[in-house]
What we know:
The chain is an all-alpha fold and about 425 residues long.
Amino acid sequence: MDNNIKQLLVQAQAAHDAADWSLLIQYLQQLILQVDSRQSDIVNNQEYLLELALATLEMGDFQQRWEIANVLTSLGNIAIEPLVEILEDEEAEEELRWYAAKTLGEFQHPDVIAPLVELLKTGEDEELKAIAATALGQMGTLAIPALSKLLIEEDTRLLAVRSLSCIRQTETITALLSVVQDSQAAVRSAAIEALSSFHDERVPPILLNALDDLAAPVRRAAVLGLGFRPDLCETFNLVTKLQSKLYDFNLEVCCAAATALSRMNSQDAAKELFQVLISPQTPIKLQIETIRALSWMETQSSLKYLQQAFNQSQSETVWLEVVTVLGQIQKSQQLTTDILLDILQSKHPSIEISSIKSAIALSLGQLGNIQAIEPLILLLADANASVRLHAIAALKNLDREAAYQKLQELVNDGALTAELRKGVAIALAEW
């Protein structure tokens, strides 16, 4: 036997005897790394290493159990049987069984399927059943036949759908389609969400039909699913279909519709979002989502709509959100800068609010247009310290040298107000 491996085995045993599980994990990890160069030595000691690893799994803390799980999978299929025994032991500690289920999911082996399926059918602990469902999903197409059988029983149907949703293979589509009309809303919702990830001709009609489901979670899942299919916008008139969901009875569905419409890359979609945004009946949460949706579109029309909404709104929350999202625009940055500068130099009531001015300064700094240097310098005269600090930070972010030079030029400008002179001095000190 290789001397290095022999020494590591001795050290591992000593760590085990001292119940030093963290140190034992380190030695086991080092031994596993030797597998390529000393395959026979590791194989000859595989059962012994398994025994040490299982002891760590049983006695270690949460983090140590997490780390030892990788060692167990590295040992190969020899670890499956003892892990199954832990899983099936109803007297065992809950967390220990949880880790056994999680680790079993890492093995792509038929022997793992039956015990995990049995736990789904007969187990009482919902958290343990959930991890078993996830473990089955990790096994890929190997688990599809067993999971399809679980769809038959009402008690196991939801967990089976969740497992199938983890398997991103087209082989799951047929099984998922079989439950889109299920009596349980949670099952329908999970199935719709899973099907949404497939570009299969059978899926869009299902999603469109689900838009009118009685259960809000199902409608929301359908809306979000269609939002990822802008390629179908014209074929299925998605803007009109999704626009109606902006007025759904459920606010979460409305917010999902705003997000979905932002992905349609359509002038009509932007217009529908604007109409919702300026409506006095629109809840503030939906207004916020609509502002974000328009900003994500990053078109000239969507940015102009944000500007109009800002000017028409009486809400400080809306004002703040608009100037914040404008700073995150990646395209049309010149237009975005112009909009923010127009707001800053206008007589709009929002510019009397310190938080709005600070947000405008931050956004101008993020956009990086040197056109904003002089307007930002004027903010240095503001009475609010936060506004001044945001203006200084923005100036540094724009063009550090150009901003510094401009500030230096102003030091001896006799026309400066006392407030601006003081602000300039503070900014130079910050440099």
